[in-house]
Amino acid sequence: MTRMIPDKTDPQATALAARQLLRAHRYGALSTLSKKFDGHPFGSITPYLVDHDGSLLILISALAEHTKNIQHDPRVSLITHNQEDSHIQTQGRITVVGSAALDKERERAGKRYLRYFPEAQTYYDMPDFQFYRIVPQALRYIGGFGDIHWVKAERYRVPPNTLAAEEEALLDQVNATRSAAQGRVIGIDCDGYDLRLQERTVRHDFPSLALDAAQALTFLQVRQ
């Protein structure tokens, strides 16, 4: 009888690594179920932003095929990986399996999204572009060769914290003391922060979870 090799990795550590990998990237391949072709998988490329709660925000047009598909069947998946690494089979990558729904708080979502994607302002100003939020139900995390795991949604879920409410004030405080050469911090969440430097967005993970602005500020000051 064949015996399965037990996974000795800490599930919570794997879930954190999955969340950090997903936050580190900005574009992914979105798969929806085709309304036109009776449920056949339909793939498209879309920018995405991992919000504070771990859900994914996408800004899409009502005219787009993937939007029509989501409105017909909300089940989706999205895969992302390091596009700068040519070793596709050995690099980290992650697939999110979840459901997409219209985000009714468009202005709130737009404020954060446009810090990451300022080039999307033109699309945001068009009334047919709306935010959809993908809530993960499970994730397939591949950290590298042989480092392969399913991550349950309850483990991936972000712990309660106050950074969503405190982020804007914290950004003002942090950026007030930074020079242009140091770049501008555009987002801070419980897992780390994102720095816009020379037209590139660079992700920095915190050494441990930050559950409020004071903890995040401590980690940011250490990095500086």
Write up this protein.
It is a single chain. With 224 residues, the protein is an alpha+beta fold. It folds into two domains: 1-158, Pnp Oxidase, Chain A (Roll), CATH 2.30.110; 159-224, PNP-oxidase-like (Split barrel-like). It is globular and about 55 Å long. It has seven helices and eleven strands.
The helix-strand sequence is HEEEEHEEHHEEHHEEEH
Per CATH, the architecture of the largest domain is: Roll
Helix fraction, binned, reads 25-40%
Reported for the largest beta sheet, the result is: 8 strands, antiparallel
Percent of residues in β-strands:
35-45%
Counting DSSP H or I runs of 4 or more residues, the number of helices is 7
**What's the rounded overall pLDDT mean?**
92
* Rg value: 18 Å
What is the name of the CATH topology of the largest domain?
Pnp Oxidase, Chain A
Class of the largest domain in CATH? Answer: Mainly Beta
SSE layout:
Elements: H1 11-23, E1 27-33, E2 41-47, E3 49-50, E4 56-61, H2 65-72, E5 75-81, E6 93-102, H3 106-116, H4 121-124, E7 129-144, E8 147-152, H5 153-156, H6 163-175, E9 184-189, E10 192-197, E11 200-205, H7 213-223
Antiparallel strand pairs: 1-2, 1-5, 3-4, 4-7, 5-6, 6-7, 7-8, 9-10, 10-11
Q: Main traits of this protein?
A:
11 strands; Pnp Oxidase, Chain A; Split barrel-like; 8-stranded antiparallel beta sheet; 224 residues; globular; alpha+beta; 3-stranded antiparallel beta sheet; disordered N terminus; 2 domains
Describe the structure in brief.
The protein is 29% helix and 35% strand.
